[in-house]
Design goal:
Shape: globular
Structural class: mainly alpha
Largest sheet: 2 strands, antiparallel
CATH architecture: Up-down Bundle
Strand order of the largest sheet: 1-2
CATH class: Mainly Alpha
Strand content: under 5%
Helix content: 55-70%
Distance between the termini: 57 Å
CATH topology: Rhomboid-like fold
Oligomer: single chain
CATH superfamily: Rhomboid-like
């Protein structure tokens, strides 16, 4: 037997090295086409914002922003329901776009290559609509834009996948990533904490459906249907609260 930091082990075991499993261990090697397409769409929409009057540093004006931002009164009174989705593709400036796209660039491929592009897209849009609900629940009368609700959902689904594959959340780095982003969301003025939390919860639920039904029980169709139900329930809840007064003070959150 050989003495090691963890006790006495046989010579063969003592020579073995424990493999550290990180979030990148989830990746299956497939090209993340859906992630790249979503990033390209976000960039294209931002360029459209700029061409219609939004500033690069503070893209809160212009026709595209005005017609597409998530805004409770426009949804409740004018029935502009498309804002539930379009708000998730608009950004309030170049820095806002950069940080959201970098987050998606690193987290998206890990989730997409592990569950497939179709399931990834379903999880993404379920999370986006969950983020819209959360943003309107907290601040329905504050214009909110940004892909971070969907990005938080990607992180939530990735945590579910890592757990299902026995990758510890803290060892993988996903735990610290989530903790840092939650602290950041609570600390920085102008960030929609409701949008982040709503996207995270929707991503956790959608991710669990994909893992439990799609992977373990080979019922992908039912899993995707479940993601659609999450998306529709989020949309319905968002419409229901769009005319409320919200549960957070006005002026806190632009930029989901």
């Amino acid at each position: 037997m050989t003495a090691t930091p963890v006790g006495m082990r046989c010579p063969e075991c003592a020579r073995e090295r424990t493999k550290v499993r990180t979030a990148r261990s989830i990746r299956a090697g497939a090209e993340p086409i859906a992630t790249y397409v979503l990033i390209a769409v976000n960039v294209a929409v931002f360029l459209a914002e700029g061409s219609t009057g939004s500033g690069v540093g503070n893209g809160t004006g212009g026709t595209v922003f005005g017609k597409g931002a998530l805004y409770g009164p426009a949804i409740h009174i004018q029935h502009q329901y498309w804002r539930l989705i379009t708000g998730g593709f608009l950004h309030a400036g170049l820095a806002h776009l950069f940080f959201n796209m970098m987050f998606l660039f690193f987290m998206g491929p890990m989730l997409e290559s592990s569950i497939g592009p179709v399931s990834f897209v379903f999880v993404y849009f379920a999370s986006l609509l969950g983020g819209s609900f959360g943003a309107l629940l907290f601040q329905p009368d504050v214009p909110t834009v940004g892909a971070s609700g969907a990005a938080f959902g990607v992180l939530g689904a990735l945590i579910v996948v890592a757990h299902a594959r026995r990758i510890p959340i803290w060892q993988s780095g996903l735990g610290i990533t989530l903790a840092i982003n939650i602290v950041f969301s609570l600390s920085i003025r102008g960030i929609s904490i409701g949008g982040h939390l709503g996207g995270l919860v929707a991503g956790l639920i959608a991710g669990a459906l994909v893992v439990e039904l799609g992977e373990r029980r080979r019922m992908q169709g039912i899993a995707l249907t479940g993601c659609v139900v999450v998306a529709l329930a989020s949309a319905a809840a968002a419409i229901a609260v769009s005319g409320s007064t919200g549960i957070a003070p006005n002026g806190i959150g632009l930029g989901g």
